[in-house]
Design a protein that fits this description.
alpha/beta, five-stranded parallel β-sheet, FAD/NAD(P)-binding domain, Polyamine Oxidase, Chain A, domain 2, 2 domains, globular
Length: 630
């Protein structure tokens, strides 16, 4: 006689079976993931390793001769300067373009880099105004301490010629409220000092600060998973994402559904501390309420040891990259606006068309790499028939333009000592509700916007650079950054630069006047030492760095951008064979983002995982440096 049916017992059996099935499912998924990673990390036999040997050499003296620098940074395009037998052509000389060109050159490839502006470097270039030199986009970089992985990568890409100066500690200062009657908070260099500094400034919040720091570290540690999903086959990414396996093994992707505002609200009720936890959001252009927490975690972790600045100015980055490309038989040519990507009868990219005066010059190469950004690449440079490709439309439908930038460049009479300038940054906010201030500004009319500026980043490049005084004795500079909508300036977009008329200048100056009022409250001592003030709007960015709508950081860093399927979709390989993407749109904004976008791109082109090559080289370098020290 059979036992009577017992629902509770039956459910326990089903639960056990379901649990066992889940573990089998997870095991199968894990094995598939490992197989995919093994394939993604693999290297085709015969492909050259650009990091096979340590290329560092003793740094040469700073080159200040203008003619010598011009020969490197301002080689104007002409048909006869195009090298023969090219292996690749790169559109754009921002760091994403230069870095991938250097890596391919070190692998024995002949590469041509084409820059539409008159000076190479993209956001790494500098410009002169009334005897002062100003940065465009490199204001400070993190993780440049000796033997850090990022420092070793940059050393290899510049043959050890690019030197870095560490900023003061505290390296960042947060000002909440009017600078005359504000609260000031300090961010110190070094993980221990950073945490201790916050605890001293926010007594009673010690446990919450520890939780924040721990969460930042844990989440940022998984940032490598971004690169992995861009290398894995798409079906495998879809599988591990849909099954929840990726979120299970990756704290980075597990946290990607939470905004920065959500996380800090769960950590503390202190409004000022929430603001300080979130203060650095302008460096990627997304307010805390719309920012995926892992993005913020990467950035805070990136600056956990403080900030560094390239000695000699940011143009040194391009200056020490270009000779490596040239030594391999390549070239970096300026005043070379690419009009279109050439495609052969099989639908494969095979070169580019460059405008020279009234003529078009076709440059052919088996590989085309774009550092012009996704929007420019797909909507402006691709032939019309290829813009309709499903793969292209799928990517375009997922992205938006980032926020435009507004810059003010200030030249000062006097040295940093005379003016009391320090190697640190100021982030100035009208109050501690950062979301509210930014949203009110972006939603305001053009007429009222200058009165509602939600933040200012203020810094002195001259104070950060120990070689500045050698080049510009008795002079100093400040740069001020904020955001601005392209739509506010759009009516002047067809006008020529510097010739947009009195109404444009008046509108631009309404921003400048409000910005300078705040700057003089932060630095009252410079009031009578101002020699020149120059400003750039989103239209300025569009003209000089070809950002479609004056974006500071490429495509929008939305919450969706950090979801696994989105992350995997935007990768160096494009729907057009032999056409690749590099730079910050591939991964993240800024110099480090452009660098890793270039690493992913070079890995795809060379069909080898350069992160593995770098890992082995870094181990050799650390062992060798350790032996020398002993």
């Amino acid at each position: 006689m059979s036992a009577p049916f017992e629902p509770a017992s039956h459910f326990r059996v089903l639960a056990a079976l379901a649990g066992a099935a889940m573990w089998v499912y997870a095991l199968v998924g894990a094995l598939l993931l490992l197989l995919g990673i093994w394939r993604a990390l693999g290297t085709r036999s015969g492909s050259s390793n650009p990091f096979r040997a340590d290329s560092r050499r003793p740094p040469a003296p700073l080159v200040t001769d203008k003619d010598a620098r011009r020969k490197v940074l301002k080689q104007g395009f002409s048909r006869d300067k195009v090298p023969g037998n090219l292996d690749a052509v790169v559109i754009g000389s921002g760091y994403g373009g230069l870095a991938v060109a250097v890596m391919l050159s070190k692998a024995g490839k002949r590469v041509l880099v084409l820059e539409q502006h008159g000076k190479a470097g993209g956001c790494c270039h500098t410009f002169s105004e009334k005897g002062f030199e100003f940065d465009v986009g490199i204001h400070y970089i993190g993780q440049m301490q000796k033997n850090s992985s990022q420092r070793m990568i940059i050393d290899q890409l510049t043959d050890g010629q690019l030197q870095w100066a560490q900023m003061d500690s505290p390296f960042d200062m947060v000002i909440l409220g009017d600078p005359d009657s504000c609260k000031r908070y300090y961010l110190y260099s070094g993980k221990k000092k950073y945490t201790e500094g916050l605890k001293k400034q926010f007594p009673g919040e010690e446990a919450n600060i520890d939780r924040f720091v721990t969460l930042i570290k844990k989440t940022a540690r998984g940032s490598a998973h971004m690169g992995i999903v861009k290398m894995l086959p798409m079906p495998l990414v879809w599988f591990v994402h849909r099954t929840g396996l990726l979120g299970w093994i990756s704290p980075f992707f597990r946290m990607s559904v939470k905004s920065l505002s959500q996380v800090v609200a769960e950590l503390t009720a202190n409004a000022d501390l929430r603001a300080v936890f979130s203060y650095i959001f302008p460096t990627y252009g997304v307010i805390p309420a719309e920012c995926s927490f892992p993005l913020h975690a990467i950035l805070v972790d990136h600056f956990s040891e403080g900030g560094w600045y390239p000695q000699g100015g940011s143009s040194e980055i391009a200056f020490h990259s270009i000779p490596i490309i040239e030594r391999a038989g390549g070239a970096v040519l300026t005043k070379a606006p690419v009009q279109s990507i050439l495609v052969n009868s099989q639908g494969k990219a095979c070169g580019v068309s460059v405008k020279q005066g009234q003529d078009l010059v076709n440059v052919y190469a088996p590989v085309v790499i774009s550092d012009a950004g996704i929007f420019n690449t797909y909507e402006q440079l691709l032939p019309k028939e290829l813009r309709a490709l499903p793969g292209v439309q799928n990517q375009i439908s997922r992205i938006d333009h980032g926020i435009g930038g507004f810059c003010v460049f200030i030249g000062l009479k006097g040295s940093k000592e005379e003016l009391g300038l320090e190697a640190k940054n100021y982030y100035v906010y009208p109050h501690n509700n950062l979301n509210e201030a930014f949203t009110s500004y972006i939603n305001s009319s053009r007429e009222t916007a200058p009165e509602k500026i939600p933040f200012l980043y203020i810094a002195s490049s001259s104070a950060k650079d120990p070689l500045w005084e050698k080049r510009y004795p008795g002079k100093s500079t400040l740069i001020v950054l904020t955001a601005a909508k392209y739509e506010w300036f759009e009516e002047w977009q067809e006008e020529k630069v510097s010739k947009r008329g009195a109404e444009y200048e008046a509108f631009k100056n309404s921003f400048v006047d409000n910005i300078m009022e705040t700057v003089l409250k932060v630095y009252p001592q410079i009031k009578d030492q101002i020699a020149c003030v120059s400003a750039g709007t989103p239209l300025t960015n569009k003209h000089y760095i070809a950002s479609p709508r004056g974006e500071m950081y490429g495509i929008h860093h939305s919450m969706a951008r950090f979801q696994p399927d989105f992350m995997a979709t935007i990768r160096p390989q494009t729907p057009v064979p032999n056409l690749y993407l590099t730079g910050q749109d591939v991964l993240l904004a800024g110099f480090p983002g452009a660098l890793h976008g270039a690493l992913l791109c070079a890995s795809a082109v060379l069909e080898r995982n350069l992160y593995i090559d770098l890992m082995w080289l870094c181990k050799k370098i650390k062992a060798s440096d350790g032996e020398k020290e002993n």
